[in-house]
Amino acid sequence: CPSDAEAANTRRKIEESQNQGSLLWISDEIDASYAYFGWVFDRLKPSAPLSSFGLVGMALQQFGGSVDPNTWVPIQIAGGLDSLLSNPANSQALGQYIGGNGAALVNVMDQDIQLSASWQGYGNGGGNTIYRLREGIERFLITDINNPAASNNAQSSVWIMLDTFSAGGGEPLFNHVPGGCNVLYMDGHVQFIRYVADSNVFDNNVPGDEPVISNVAYMVTALSSP
Q: Has this prediction a pTM greater than 0.90?
């Protein structure tokens, strides 16, 4: 993204990789301006402190991040990741990934998330599953089985990826400070959503339109902490 504060540095790394015939930095840097989660997140405003999600906090610390445990983040994202890591096989794969096996997380990241008991009801449509993004997935987002036409989320409302943005000390991650983010939806259209700063980040009264909201910004900052 031309508005990325790190764009010049990213271009330099990519050009150096090309000159050296290496794909290492290219694959690591080519998407540096954008955030892609891989799952359908349709209910991001309900929040809780990061400390509520023990396994997620432990994983962030393992990656070397410096994270404030009092930061409020979306339950659907953090609870989903926490549920993923509660599966022993997935935790083992994470350990292999940290140990240098870059392919270990492929199968983990390519599955629907079945929410653990602590986070039941925070899945898609208020259910217990967070679905992996894929064609036709909008059919699973029905909240009223008696009126599916009115409650079904069409492809035009399922977001896929967006510009990076952050909060607190993570301004370099924010491409369009302080305006907002371009968001790509499943039907192919892109919409610019304005970011509304939230001075009170410790409750569920999150202003703005998903996914460009403050608790997501703090989640991105936590995941990206050096």
A: no
